[in-house]
Every structure is written in C-alpha cells, then in structure tokens.
Write a structure and sequence with these properties.
The chain has about 120 residues and is mostly helical. It contains four helices and two strands, in the order E-E-H-H-H-H. It has a two-stranded antiparallel sheet with strand order 1-2. A hairpin with a 2-residue loop joins strand 1 and strand 2. Helix 1 packs antiparallel against helix 2. The protein is elongated. The model has no long low-confidence stretch (mean pLDDT about 80).
C-alpha cells in the first residue's frame, strides 16, 4: 500500500505494518512516529478533510528532516543552503513559519554595537 509523502508499507498482520519505503530525506529519522501519526490522523480525522491531513503530514516530514540548531553541518551543506536561498526568493520561512534569514541594515547593526545612539 502506498502512503503519501513517499512512504510505502504493507499489512504485516496482527495490527503491524512492514515499512518498505521511507522518503530519502528521512533516512536517518525513525519513521515509526510519522507513520503512527499518519495512521492516527486518518483514523480520527475530526472533521479534517484528507488534503488538510496530508498537508499537516508534509509539514511534519519537513520538520523532522529540517536542520536543527546546535547540529553541526558541513561547509558544502551550508553553501548549498545559501545557493538555494539566493535562487528561490520564496524560501524565507521554516515549515512552522519562522524566518530562516533576516535583513539587518548597517544602521541597525551599528546601533546594536553602540556606534549610533
């Protein structure tokens, strides 16, 4: 059975699933939590339509795969991220809506360091 967001699983009997495919972006992340979340949402939709459930799932996948604070990254990864930011002006927020970059003017910077009163 194909699940959304790049998962593939099959019934393994007695309420268990065998996971066959996981999105490459999550290869180092335990898939169990995300699949459990997906199944719970599908079982208990609570008035949410399927598109809204999948939208939330995609946000969860993006969040789990995101770069986290205090986790070192290689210079090559940092350069690739900067390239992507330069090329796509629409990428300015994380999946939760927090900014990934801000603009600070020279005047604001000088004010922060007490150069301007």
């Amino acid at each position: 059975m194909a699940f959304p967001a790049g998962f593939a699983a099959e019934d393994f009997g007695e309420g268990c699933l065998r996971v066959r495919e996981v999105p490459a972006i999550l290869e180092d992340t335990p898939a169990e939590d995300l699949l459990t979340e997906l199944c719970e949402r599908l079982l208990h939709r609570g008035g949410m339509d399927e598109e809204a459930i999948y939208d939330e799932l995609y946000h969860s996948v993006a969040c789990k795969a995101a770069i986290k604070g205090n986790i070192p990254s290689m210079q090559r990864e940092q350069q690739e991220l900067l390239r992507l930011l330069r090329e796509d002006p629409t990428v300015r927020n994380c999946p939760h809506g927090r900014p990934v970059a801000i603009v600070i003017t020279r005047r604001e910077l000088e004010r922060m360091f007490g150069r301007i009163v």
